[in-house]
Amino acid sequence: MERTLIIIKPDGVRRKLVDKIVQRYERAGLKVITLKKMKATPQLLKKHYSAHVGKEFYKALEKFMSSEVVAFVLEGNNAVKQARAITGATDPSKAERGTVRGDFGIDSAEKADKEKRAIENLVHASGTKEEAEKEIGLWFPGLKK
Ligand code: CMP
After folding, report:
1. Which among 49, 53, 82, 139 is placed 20 to 30 Å from 65, CA to CA?
2. CB-based contacts of 87-96 (< 8 A; 24+ apart in sequence)
3. Are 64 and 132 in contact (CB under 8 A)?
4. Which atom of ligand 1 is nearest to the CA of 125?
5. CB under 6 Å to ligand 1: residues?
């Protein structure tokens, strides 16, 4: 069994999409093993987004991600790959229909870049098994392996 981390970002929480989004993953057979609503500290975000610290959009990304989010761990066969497929492409305006970002997303990378802010794309999903392990450790440090 594999695990992955999903974070419903502040735009998803504000738009009251938490239940609908969680159901998208559950209906594919992935199981929520823990879930919490929380506010991330700048330190946690720097660790989580270590690959993006220093990029042009990082400051805006940190600011955006500092409001309330819902983080959860999913478990199931091929959880990382499955969850990424359900999530859809980073830019919601290009994400396929049937994906979380394609169906619920209202932002675009072009608009976000023009307005010098982070792309509001509703969810984060770990990219690889290694990232998932690292990210689960950061967001759920007490979780048994
Ligand atoms: P996420 O999957 O959480 O990983 C990094 C996040 O940075 C991404 O989703 C977007 O919210 C944001 N992001 C990525 N690329 C850009 C960009 N070019 N401009 C603004 N925000 C971005």
Report:
1. 82
2. 87/6, 87/123, 87/125, 90/119, 90/121, 91/119, 91/121, 92/119, 92/120, 92/121, 92/122, 95/121
3. no
4. 2
5. 52, 57, 61, 90, 109, 112-113, 118-119, 121, 124
Question: DSSP alpha helices (H): ranges in the chain?
Answer: 10-14, 18-26, 42-48, 58-64, 79-87, 100-104, 109-114, 129-139
For the stretch 47-90, pLDDT in tens is 999 999 999 999 999 999 999 999 999 999 999 999 999 999 99
Question: Is 124 an annotated catalytic residue?
Answer: yes
pLDDT digits (tens, 9 = 90+) for 8-58: 999 999 999 999 999 999 999 999 999 999 999 999 999 999 999 999 999
State which of 50, 64, 94, 119 you would mutate to test the pocket of ligand 1, scoring each by most atoms of that ligand within 8 A of its C-beta: 119
Tokens 């919601």 correspond to 92
Please give the distance, rounded to the nearest whole angstrom, from the Cα atom of residue 109 to the centre of ligand 1.
Answer: 8
Instruction: Give the predicted TM-score (pTM) of the model.
Output: 0.97
Ligand 1 geometric centre to CA of 119 (Å): 5
